[in-house]
């Protein structure tokens, strides 16, 4: 049976809750809780996989541990959105915005500036790729300098993922088109983002060491001026989805065989999928032990 309800989701759910009847069978709930626990364990392992130099998943993983209670977070529609969506554990009182519907390039930085001007006392953190930061973020740092006094009440952080690649499109070309990376369109130059921030009188922090990324976040969150946190990340960490369609897998494999980064991609992609497999095996083993005890 299907019933289409039109209305505000929050108000609609409030009206429906009193009509629900509690069920004694908790098997579905138990299944979901188990699979969510498995997924978080997979993400923890993925975040700590070795990378060259920094694993982008580790960057967001370490931020999530440190998020202030009333933080506002923004991002763009690049590969950074994958790690943002997977690793951030948002809590009540936080707000998060990204350009989802149209996959617009570049709103993460102006979103953050606007949020800080509207809510000066709240911590604001933008996670952006180097592609979009070159499109408009560098120029917007001049805006931040202009309104620096109004933007310095608590953290305002622009975390730039520097991988010298238009990474989301690179992976889309592989997975959807079966084509290897085309350097002519996908490569972007290395820019000293943190140094640029320092030149403007802001706080610039650069990190390329996985052992120091937690310290870098601590320093950024404690800064008295707006921060550009430049993280030098590995472009070959694949945004492996939980479920891979056969056609997508075939096209990706075809592309990787001809890709200039094929060895690195194959090694890191296989390791990521292996984490899912091992967590599933552990879960099945644990369930079998419990059944045996009964």
TrEMBL record:
Gene3D superfamilies registered for this protein in UniProt: 3.40.50.970, TPP-binding domain
Residue stretches making up the Thiamine pyrophosphate enzyme TPP-binding domain: 76-231
CDD domains: TPP_POX
Region of interest: Disordered: 267-294
GO molecular function, one term: thiamine pyrophosphate binding
Domain of life of the organism encoding this protein: Bacteria
Name by which UniProt lists this protein: Thiamine pyrophosphate enzyme TPP-binding domain-containing protein
Organism: Mycobacterium kansasii
